[in-house]
Write a structure and sequence with these properties.
It comes from Anaeramoeba ignava (Anaerobic marine amoeba). One of its GO terms (cellular component) is endoplasmic reticulum membrane. InterPro entries: BAP29/BAP31, BAP29/BAP31_N. The chain has 142 residues and is mainly α. Helices cover 89% and strands 0% of the residues. It has one domain. The longest helix is centred in the last third of the chain and has 57 residues.
Length: 142
């Protein structure tokens, strides 16, 4: 069940990051309406909260990967001879599928975390550029 929520949070964060990157291509009236709803403190709070949640999910998946590796090592050393080959093959396949899902979610969390950090660092730079453009327009008017 945690995987569903993790994937949902990742999708939401990826869509938010995509919206932020597409912001320069959005028409000016829509940008003004959006800016009226959110101020800098709210955006910073949202970024910090989502960063914390992503960090928790990344740590959770890392611990699951370690737990899974220790369980597979114990299972490999304690194989019982009374299991049939089909049972052990099916169990091995299921464990590999679970391992793949855990690793996939871990790498998705890391990638989203990296994108979020890049976006968080780019927002002040974009605001500086916007202020510089406004000053340049004012100087041209004078």
């Amino acid at each position: 069940m945690l995987e569903i929520y993790a994937v949902l949070v990742l999708l939401i964060l990826c869509s938010l990051i995509l919206i932020i990157f597409l912001a320069p291509f959005i028409p000016k009236p829509i940008i003004k309406i959006t800016k009226s709803f959110l101020n800098n403190k709210q955006i910073s709070y949202i970024f910090k909260l989502s960063f914390f949640l992503l960090l928790l999910m990344t740590i959770n998946y890392f611990l699951e990967m370690r737990k899974f590796d220790s369980h597979t090592q114990i299972e490999n050393t304690n194989e019982n001879s009374h299991h049939t080959h089909a049972d052990s093959s099916s169990a091995w396949t299921q464990s590999q599928i679970r391992k793949f899902r855990i690793q996939r979610n871990f790498y998705l969390c890391e990638f989203t975390l990296a994108l979020q950090l890049i976006t968080y660092r780019m927002l002040p730079l974009m605001k500086r550029i916007e202020l510089a453009e406004k000053k340049e327009k004012e100087l041209k008017k004078n």
